Amino acid sequence: GSYEARFQVGGVKYRADFTKEGLWLETEHNIDFINLPPDVRSAYLLKYSREAFRSAEAVESPGGRVP
User: Fold this and answer.
1) What are the C-alpha distances in Å from 48 to residues 4, 44, 52?
2) Global pTM value
């Protein structure tokens, strides 16, 4: 029982989820490899090549932001 809204701001596509009561659950948008936190990039590169990277999302929720 949740709802999803898709929208675009400044050329960036977002997806937001809400409960049926209208409470915001989270918002997601794609981010580039270079915009991942440095520790995440380093951990990724220990196991995979940069060329293997396909996509990542930044997630914002009432509890905070988790890239």
Assistant:
1) 32, 6, 6
2) 0.73
Written as one string, the DSSP assignment of 1-64 is -EEEEEEEETTEEEEEEEETT--EEEEEEEE-GGGS-HHHHHHHHHHS-GGG---EEEEEETTE
Cα 42 to the chain's mean position, in Å?
A: 18
Q: Binning pLDDT at 50, 70 and 90, where does residue 66 land?
A: low
Percent of the chain topping pLDDT 90: 91
Question: 16: how many CB neighbours lie within 10 A of its CB?
Answer: 16
- Of 4, 1, 13, 2, which Cα lies nearest the Cα of 58? 13
